[in-house]
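Shape matters. As here.
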Amino acid sequence: MKYKTLFRLHLKVIGVLAFVFGTASVMSSLGYLFTGLYPSSFGMAQLGASLFSMAMGLYLFFGGKWIADKAIPGNRPYCHECGYDLTNAAGCVCSECGTPFRPAETGSAS
């Protein structure tokens, strides 16, 4: 497994945790707001922070590609399945594992 793939897997795990804890916090905040235990301004701030946590969790789980690309920049295209170097690959299928890919990922002129 390539380092970038492992990093993306870790981002997905962090995304799941952020979403789960954010969801629990949203439910707690709504409960406190409806029962009147918190002042409304504090409850709304906590609710906003919880919703932000949920949104970040979803982003990390479904689309953390930008963060992974910034953290571990790739200078050559690799197959996302097996890690095979796709530089100057012919066709749209990885010659190592048979996984289809977009030709723009190879960096070739064709």
Remarks:
- The chain has a mean pLDDT of 80.
- The two ends are 28 Å apart (CA to CA).
- The CA atoms of residues 22 and 53 lie 5 Å apart.
